[in-house]
Amino acid sequence: MHKDIATPIRTRDILEKYGFSFKKSLGQNFLIDTNVLKRIVDHAELTDDSAAIEIGPGIGALTEQLARRSKKVVAFEIDQRLLPILEETLAPYPNTKVIHEDVLKADVKGVIEKELGEIADLMVVANLPYYVTTPIIMKLLEEKLPIRGIVCMLQKEVADRIAAKPGTKDYGSLSIAIQYYTEAETVMIVPKTVFVPQPNVDSAVIRLTKRKEPAVSVINEGFFFQLIRISFAQRRKTLLNNLTNGLQEGKQKKEEILSALKQAEIDPGRRGETLSIEEFARLSDHLFPIFA
Ligand code: SAM
After folding, report:
1. Which stretches make up the Ribosomal RNA adenine methylase transferase N-terminal domain (predicted)?
2. Among the four 16, 98, 143, 246, which has the fewest Cβ within 10 Å?
3. Is 57 in the pocket of ligand 1 (CB under 6 A)?
4. Could you tell me the distance, in angstroms and rounded to a whole number, from the CA of residue 47 to the centre of ligand 1?
5. Can 8-210 and 221-291 be said to share one CATH topology?
6. Closest-lying ligand 1 atom to the alpha carbon of residue 126
């Protein structure tokens, strides 16, 4: 077995050798604790027949652990300066492939077909760059990739919002957008001390397990997501207020909105944050014919 990349000393040596300086703008906080890395990989429940897709390998700390526990790892890295480093650190792991691309612009589905076509079990596992956590997760879910789920490190505050339940202060459009596609749970809280440099915020690891079908079925998905955004536009206002302000010609159609709320059995005086995803789905289907 090769020496772990993610020890404080080895990480320092690699960074010094290449004269690497961290770019805050790319969310570069590298993990230097192999126990934390191993626990992240545990949560992905990989087997020898699984493949992992990593976003942002850095110097390969997580990539190495994934390579040891799966058939193949494909990692998207935006920073060209890391490529020669990864070539050295990942040399002992021929089952790894680094793709030099911004994951937000990459054709991830195409890469999966080309690189991982014959592998049935795919997991995304990453210590995400915090400046783009939400866009990356939403891209991976909206593109309906053939993955089992996502295990990723992110800001604790975002993890709280993603996994939040109705009626709590963290519950909002992000919770619903992600819980629509997945079952979300926070599986680890991670201290700042296991990163270099240390981030300014607390971190957590979440596991998103993709549902076979979305949590609810609605007549029009686009309208459902629009309704959710509108319902949380001003958190302190009532649902009726947000709907009449946010829906097109909402004020003129107030009576129709009230009737849709009644048919969906939702009190117009409630706030968006109290509605379950099923209630939003019901409301969406009653409102859609009015605004289609
Ligand atoms: N996986 C490494 C670790 O755990 O030590 C590094 C994680 S670091 C938080 C985030 C990594 O994502 C950095 O290597 C950074 O260069 C890379 N990155 C930032 N934005 C990216 C993007 N849009 N696409 C791909 N990689 C990105």
Report:
1. 36-212
2. 16
3. yes
4. 24
5. no
6. 1
Classify each residue of 83-111 as buried b or exposed e, where b means 16 or more C-beta atoms within 10 Å of its C-beta: eebbeebbeebeebbbbeeebeebebeeb
Beta bridge pairs of residue 122: 51
pLDDT tens for residues 169-189? 999 999 999 999 999 999 999
> Residue 3: what pLDDT?
86
Q: Give the CA count within 13 Å in the CB-facing half-sphere of 155.
A: 13
Q: Which CATH architecture has domain 221-291?
A: Orthogonal Bundle (1.10)
Q: Tell whether residue 142 is among the known ligand binding residues.
A: no
In the chain, domain spans = 8-210, 221-291
pLDDT, tens digit, for every residue of 37-92? Answer: 999 999 999 999 999 999 999 999 999 999 999 999 999 999 999 999 999 999 99
Q: What is the dihedral of CA 9, 15, 19, 21, to 10 degrees?
A: -120
Cα separation of 281 and 275, whole Å? 10
Q: Both tokens of residue 190? A: 């991670």
In angstroms, the CA 142 to CA 210 distance is 11
CA 150, 153, 156, 157 dihedral sign is: negative
